[in-house]
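Hey, can you fold this?
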Amino acid sequence: MLWPLVVAAALAAVLVIYAIVLYNRLVRLRNTGDAAWADIDVHLKKRRDLVPNLVETVKGYAGHERSLLEKVTAARAQALQATGPAETARAEGGLARTLKSLFAVAESYPDLKANRNFLELQQQLREIEDGIEAARRYYNAVVRDLNTAIEQFPANLLAGRLGFGRREFFELEAPAEERKPVAVAF
């Protein structure tokens, strides 16, 4: 008579231990995902902060390109207001496209291309773009691990009840267009 109670207690203990281990793993993945997103946000902020410097530098040489400069400024404003991976990816894609246009216009101004400030800003942008790419890969890897952990059996039976849901990947809005490098080298 005691034997069934011992087995039931042992099974209950195993289930409780499993739930604790699962919960802790999901919390770790969620927090790592939050940290990875914060890292992306830092890189995107650096790029957004660099844009006014680029615009001012180009404005000094190509002030009559007002509509392009306004588009760059508007794209930056949209990027600042974006929330969540999908909206941020859309806004940052627009900013990247307008930056490409800005650098294409800069091709027409030899004095601008030779300006030390402009060259330094280009180098900073290149480094920031590399940082964004690395941070996006890391974030997406963490999101993949979290989503996989949430969807696998038997975790999928508990994850939703424990408050864990799927996360969005930080994906390219227009992959073919955005895979082209930002034209910063002349």
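Oh, and this one too while you're at it.
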Amino acid sequence: MEITTGMHRELGKSTHGQVWAWLEKTDRSPEEDFLMQHAAHTSLYHWLHAGTGDNEQRGEWLVAHVYTVLGQGETALRHAQRCVELTDQYIDEMLDFDQAYAYEGLARAYALIGEHQEATKYKAMARQLGDGIADSEDKNIFDADFAGGDWYGID
């Protein structure tokens, strides 16, 4: 059976949603961490087949975010850097929050591996881009995400 573009889109959405369900759990088991990691990659895989540049960028951000939450800094950084590359490559497809999140992810990955100077630089870029988010609902979501989570030793 060949997977159609529509099927890839649905699978990309559903696995993305499942990752967020695990991320929001405060008491994830090691098995759920394992499944969450693979679901993030699965979502990205399906977006590569059915999505656009912004879908791929958001998928890379999600993978980077999962690895950051799981404390796997080098892998998080690799995906965060790819997210920023895609942000630049597909800038015409990006929304203002995509740009802010790309640098937020990069900042957290650098902070996790202890590169605080780089983390601080990219955190400031993310904050500046976040301040420019036009839609108030998107801005509120970004602001809450930016204020939450672990910044691994940077202010």
